[in-house]
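pasting for ref
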Amino acid sequence: MIRVIVVFLILRFSPSDSADALITLADVPQRALSFARMAAEETGGGCIELGRLLEVSGRFEEASRQYGLAMDSATDPVLRNWLADRMRGSAGLDTVMMLDAQVMNLSSRTAYDLTLVTPLPASHPPYQAIQLVGTYFERAGPMLRCRIDSVPAGDTLSVPILIHVIQHPHTYRPLPDTLGGLTLKRLSLLLRDLDIPERYEGTGPCLEMASALRRMAEEQGLEMEVVGGLVRRGDSLVFHAWNLLTDSRPGLPIDPLLFRSDSLRGLGHCPTDMIPVWDLLSTQGHEVSVYFPGQQADLEVRMTAKFLTGETLDELGKGYPASELLRRMLLRSGGG
């Protein structure tokens, strides 16, 4: 009988299931955790399911231990990478990150009088604090601007941005019955009505889905931001976009793409493998843009991101001024 109850609860409450019942749960019931724990102890398996339930309950240290137990017996490399990311996302983050804004001149003539624009990195309390350490960009309201005299034909100019990120895993559960006047049931229907676009700009459909959800929510009187950030995937940082609720629970994340496969983690969940950085509405959804007068050369812009390690962090700890640290970094990369 216990096994039947365990199977029922795991199927009903597993965060990997995007059933309506999950999104309307304000909290993960204690009985679900108890039976999941019993299943894991009785069968020697079920660590992943228990870890998921613990994670969305805000019990991140316990969740990390369960993921570690699952890692001991996991042989599939995809599963092992997923477990490693979940363990990282359940631990605190305190590091310096470099965003590298780049403008590439793909033509055979010099480009002149350019302006790079990127959103100003912003903190996301109560779980994250961001500090701008140093950059050649200058603040201009909610944006950063950098004037560039020229970029020769065939060259790429890099402008680094150093930010200090302190973030701890956080959950907004238990959730209220309504968010900004919408019931959880109604919000679930909005998310389920979103289609994954067949065509999209950039590397994924996340921005289009976040923008569409914001428009749909606005029609219901619910205000949302479109936030851009980074997702940790192993040693890489991948750009991603999702929504932040500005009504009722400011800063509460809603990830319409993640929701399609993991409804509990797609709402109100703030692990440290997802790092919000900017409000993308200030730049029409772009992490970096370039502006110039008149006809110009063929230009492209992009942004990369990485955590700083080793010698660069040592220099930062020695108290080098940001301008000197940036100069040293540019010299290492072959810049001016």
